[in-house]
Amino acid sequence: MANFDNQKLYVLSIPKKKTLISKIGETQIDMKKRITAFGMGGKWKGMENSVKIELEMPTLLAPTIERLVKKTLQKNWKDKQIKDKNMGRGYTEWYDISPSSMKGIVFKSIQTLYRKDRLLKRKLKGAS
User: Three-state SS string across 62-111, please?
Assistant: First the structure.
C-alpha cells in the first residue's frame, strides 16, 4: 500500500539565459533527492545545483492538483512547453513561464478543485 504521509506538490525554477523557467510536479520523496534524480544532460548537465524550490506544498491532493495544472498548461501555454530531453526525467513538465505565473496557475487550480468537488465544497462550508 502506498504511503501518502509526505505527498507534496512542488514548483521549481532554473535560470535559462536571462529568464527563469519553471516546472510543476508532485512527489513523495525528499526534494533534494528528487532534484538530483532528474538526470540532466547536455547543456543542462550539472545544473541541478541551480534548481530553486519556489513552492513545496504538502497535500494529499498533490496528484489531482498536478493533473489540473498540467491540463491548464497544455490548453493555454502549450507553446511555452520546453521539450528538451536533456532536462532529464519529467522534461515535459518544464515551461518557459515565470515561477510566479506557475504558482498562480497552481493556486487557481486549487480554487477550481475546491469549487467543483462536492465533498471539498461541503468541508469548506463546515469550516466557515
Answer: HHHHHHHHHHHHHHHCHHHECCCHHHCCCHHHEECCCHHHHHHHHHHHHH
In a 13 Å sphere around the CA of 48, the CA atoms on its Cβ side amount to: 16
Give residue-wise pLDDT tens across range 63-112. Answer: 999 999 999 999 999 999 998 888 888 888 899 999 999 999 999 999 88
Closest alpha carbon to 25 in 52, 56, 49, 46: 56
Give the SS3 label for residue 41. Answer: coil
What dihedral do alpha carbons 80, 36, 62, 70 form, nearest 10°? 20
Helices (H) and strands (E) in the chain, counts: 4, 4
- Inter-residue contact 56 to 8 (CB < 8 Å): yes
Question: Cell 498536478 sits at which residue?
Answer: 66
Contact between 85 and 78 (Cβ < 8 Å): no
Q: Is residue 40 within 8 Å of residue 82, measured between CB atoms?
A: no
